[in-house]
Design brief:
- It is a single chain.
- The protein is of the alpha/beta class and 316 residues long.
- Helices cover 43% and strands 17% of the residues.
- The chain has 13 helices and 13 strands.
- It has helices at residues 2-29, 34-46, 60-69, 86-90, 128-131, 135-140, 175-178, 192-202, 216-228, 233-244, 258-263, 270-286, 294-300, and strands at 50-53, 71-72, 75-79, 91-97, 104-110, 117-121, 142-145, 148-151, 157-162, 183-186, 214-215, 230-231, 291-292.
- The protein has a five-stranded parallel β-sheet with strand order 3-6-9-1-10, covered by helices on one side. It has a two-stranded parallel ribbon with strand order 2-11.
- Helix 1 (2-29) crosses helix 9, helix 2 crosses helix 12 and helix 9 crosses helix 12.
- The longest helix is centred in the first third of the chain and has 28 residues, at 2-29.
- It is globular and about 70 Å long.
- The protein starts with a helix and ends in a 16-residue tail after the last helix.
């Protein structure tokens, strides 16, 4: 109806203004990574999670902390180590004794997963058993401890970092874990101009910091708006064809490229198509458009071999 259309347009304008504010605050602190910032905001608005890969010293952790500073959301950092246990992430039950009566009761002590923006730092440094502690939280927005389910606050945004060059003492992420991330964001070295700016900015007395410009309620409204973005039939078909082209066997096996049949054992599932379409919608909202286009889907899909390594790639 015209009234609903007017409301959606107003919401889109409000969301576009909110995105510009977030971009401004992040770019005040993070220099020369505008594309990476947009990719993370795309997943943030689309309700997905990000796997952030890059060599040490490229401000991966700083970027995530700055996003938390730019929003009125609870931030939690989990340093993944080989001896980390699932209870260190989810929480644990403790026995409390009432000194007055001597009675005892069991109380659940929430772990660091009970936050809105969670930094899973060097997630591949802990065994798969502990990595799996994030699965239920990322997918169901809840955790189970002692047979009791505990709901997590919304919005929930998990950003995990990986060091791609140091593999000693690391554990590959299980496929089920990778499948929970919407985008695999690769952060590359800055240009010479940007690197000079970084050195000047971070070695002076007054380092810039982000100001909170968004609330959790605003982020949740923006996420609902992303799902209202119009996706034409040809755009949905295009996303489905991309996903199905990754499967070496199936109904469309005759259309699958030869290199897929040679190197891929299991193709992407329907969740990859959902991620493609939602990320494309998030990109459309990021640019202030009410409909997702083929270009939006192409922009968040795996890039061509000659494309820049800073492009976002769904974890198919």
């Amino acid at each position: 109806s015209p009234k609903r259309l007017e409301s959606s347009e107003m919401s889109l304008l409000e969301t576009a203004a909110l995105v510009r504010s977030l971009q401004h605050e992040l770019r005040r602190v993070i220099v020369g990574q505008d594309q990476v910032i947009d990719e993370i905001l795309t997943a943030f608005l689309a309700g997905g999670h990000c796997l952030l890969r890059g060599v040490p010293g490229l401000a991966k952790t700083l970027l995530i902390k700055t996003l938390a500073q730019a929003t009125h959301l609870k931030f939690s950092r989990i340093q993944f180590t080989p001896d980390l246990m699932p209870s260190d992430i989810i929480g644990t039950e403790v026995i409390e004794e009432d000194r007055a009566t001597g009675s005892r009761s069991i109380r659940f002590m929430p772990g660091p997963i009970f936050a809105n923006i969670i930094l899973a730092d060097e997630i591949n440094r802990t065994p798969p058993k502990t990595q799996a502690a994030l699965l239920e939280a990322m997918q169901e927005h809840q955790v189970t401890a002692g047979g009791v389910r505990h709901q997590l606050d919304r919005p929930l945004f998990v950003l995990a970092t990986q060091n791609p060059i140091e593999q000693e003492g690391t554990y590959p992420l299980p496929e089920a874990q990778l499948d929970r991330f919407m985008l695999n964001v690769v952060i590359d070295y800055p240009s010479a101009v940007h690197e000079r700016a970084i050195l000047a900015q971070t070695t002076s007395r007054d380092e810039p910091s982000a100001t909170a410009v968004a609330t959790g309620e605003q982020i949740e409204r923006a996420r609902l708006l992303v799902r209202e973005v119009v996706a034409a039939a040809n755009v949905i078909d295009y996303a489905a064809r991309i996903v199905r082209a990754t499967r070496p066997s199936g109904d469309d096996a005759d259309r699958v490229p030869d290199f897929v049949r040679q190197w891929v054992r299991w193709g992407a599932g329907p969740r990859a198509g959902q991620s493609l379409l939602l990320a494309g919608k998030g990109r459309a909202v990021l640019q202030g458009r009410p409909a997702v286009s083929l270009e939006d889907v192409r922009a968040v899909a795996p890039p061509e071999p000659k494309a820049k390594p800073t492009r976002a790639r769904p974890v198919l």
